[in-house]
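#random but structural
TW: two for the price of one
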Amino acid sequence: MHQHFWKRWNLEFLHTLQQRSKWTDPSTPIKVGSVVLIKDDSSPPLHWRVGRVLETHPGSDNVVRVVTLKTALGTLKRPVVKLCPLPILFKLKILRILGGGTTEY
C-alpha cells in the first residue's frame, strides 16, 4: 500500500509541480513562508529535501530569482528554478481562518 501510494504520487502529482510556462507569461512569485521541494540533480525526486522560504532576493528588475531557505539541515540560498513550490501555504491560511485566527505566515 505504501509503495503504491508513492509510485502514484511520483507519476501523477510530482511532475505537475515542475511545470513551467513560457517566460513571457507571468507566474506566481515564491513568497516568504512558501514550502518548497529543493531539486537535486544527483538524487531522485522522492529524496529531494523540503524547505521553507525565509527571505526572497529580487533582482534589479524586482523579479525574485534567488531565495533563502530553512531546511532540517540549516539555511541555504537556492535559485527559484531549482525549487518546486508545494501548495501548502494556501492550505495553512485557510486552516488558520477556519480556526478563528487570521494571521498569515
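TW: number two ↓
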Amino acid sequence: MAVSNSPGQRTSDVNSESILRPLRDGLGGSFRVTKFDTPALPIHAFAFAIGRFRQKTKNSTQHTVTVYARDSDIGMTQHALDRSVEILDHINTYLNYSLKSAHPKIGIVPAPNVGGYSTPGLIFLSEANLFYQDGKSPAELEEKVTFELAYQLAKLVKNKKKK
C-alpha cells in the first residue's frame, strides 16, 4: 500500500512494459502503483510511505482520518484514530477553523526512529507515540499518545495559518 498526503487518484498494476519492472522483479512478484494528485509543496513537506499496511478510517465532522499499521499492530491504533477525530472536531469548533481545504485527508503512519513529524495531510509518529491498547498498555501511554497527536495536528493548523 502506498500512502501520501493527498487522496489516491488511480491505481494500476505494474506491467512488463513499465520502467518499474526491474523493481517489481527484484521484489519477487507483482505490485500496484498509486498515482496521487498532490498540490505543490516545498520539498521539505513532501512525504510518502510504502509498506505492507492495513488501515482504519474514521470520519470527523470535517475530515477523514486514516491510521496505517502492519497487520500485527493495527489493533493498537483505535485509540489514536478516535482521539484524532475528537481533536480535529475540537479544532474546528473551538477555533472555528477547518483544515479540510488544505488537507482533504489526514493519514497517520508509524515510523521507526521518528518522534513525530507532520507534513500537509500526513503525520509520522514513532510506534511508541502511536500504539496503545485499552486495558493492556500503561495508563500514562494513553496520555502520551493523545498529547503527541494533538501536537502534530495543531502543527497542521499553525502551518496553514502562516500562509
